[in-house]
Amino acid sequence: MISHFNVIANVKQIQPFEQPSRDAIKLGYLDVTLGLVPFSHIYGLVGIAHISVYRGDSIVVLPKFVFKDFLGSVEKYKINTLSVVPPIIINLVKNKVLCDQFDLTSVRSVMTGAAPLGKETAQEFASQHPDWVTRQGYGMTETATAVTNTSPADVWFGSSGCLLSGVEAKVLSSEGVEITEYNKPGELLVKAPSIVLGYLNNPKANAETFIDMPEGRFLNTGDEVEFRGLQVAPAELEDCLLDHPAVADCAVIPVADERAGELPKAFIVKSPAVAKDDENVIKHSILKHVEKAKSRHKWLAGGLEFIDIIPKSPSGKILRRLLRDRERERRRETQAKL
C-alpha cells in the first residue's frame, strides 16, 4: 500500500539532492529526460514521472525498447538524461559502432536503477562516453523508490551512492548485531518517510518486513550492503601541504560530516614570507595545490584554518586531540549562536 504521502515525500527527497548539479549547469535549468521505464514500475512512477513533472522537465515517452528507435529518439528530441536499467547500458556498450551513427551529444547524464550495474561495465561505459555522468541509485517498491542516489560530483563505480536526506539506515550481521564499521557487509534496514504503509491483507508479510525499533519503524530490505569508507592518512596530506611555499607547519584532523561521515581539515601555520598576504588568496592556492596532487576524497573538504602554532608534545608529535577538541568547541559555539 503506497500512500500519496510516500510518493510526495520521495519526490521532496530527490529534488534537493539533485538540485545543486542542475544549478551548476544553469539556474532554472530544465531537463529533457527519457521515459522508457514503465510508469507502472515504482522507478518509472516516482523516479521519472512524478519528479520530472514536479520540476517542470520534459519527458520523452517511448512505448517499448527498440534499440535503433531509442537512439533515434535521443538524437531527435535532444534528450539530456537517460533514465534506464543496466541491460540497456550493456546494450550501449556492446553496440558502440551503431551508437556512433547517431548524434548523442545532448546527453549529460545516465541514471540507472532496478538492478545493480557492475563496476567493470560502468567503467567501460564511462570510457566510451566520458562526457556522460553515470549515476546509480537504490530503492524498491516498499521504499516508494529511492533510498540512495549518486551525486554527479561524487561518482563511485560499483556503488549506488549515499543515503538521501530523511533516510536512516542500519546494517545488521547474520546474528542480528548492528554493524557500525565501514566495508563490512550485512543486511540493510531503512527508515524513511517514503516507506510504504504495508502489504494489503497480509499480516504475516508485514510482521516479517516491517520492524518496530526504539528509533521507529524500519523496513527489512533483505538486501546485503556495505557502507564504504576511504582512508585518508593525515601524515600523507601534511607532507603534501608542507610542499607548498606558504606553509611553515600544518596538521590534519578528521571533522564530522553528516553525509561523508568524516572529512579532512587542515590547520596551517603560514610561512613568514606570506605573513602579510591576503589569506583568502593563500587559502585558495593551498586548496588547489592539494586538489592537483591528491584524489578527490583526500581534498580538504572539511576546511582549512590558519593557526599561530601547531600543538606538539616535547618529542615533536602533533597533539591532534587538542585540535579535535578545539574544532568540536568551535562547532558547539556556532550551533549555539544559530
TrEMBL record:
Signal sequence segment: none
Database matches in Gene3D superfamilies: 3.30.300.30, 3.40.50.980, Luciferase, Domain 3
Domain AMP-dependent synthetase/ligase: 1-200
A Pfam cross-reference name: AMP-binding
Name of the molecule in the record: Uncharacterized protein
Every AMP-binding enzyme C-terminal domain range: 236-317
Top-level taxon: Eukaryota
InterPro entries according to UniProt: AMP-bd_C, AMP-bd_C_sf, AMP-dep_synth/lig_dom
Organism of derivation: Exophiala sideris
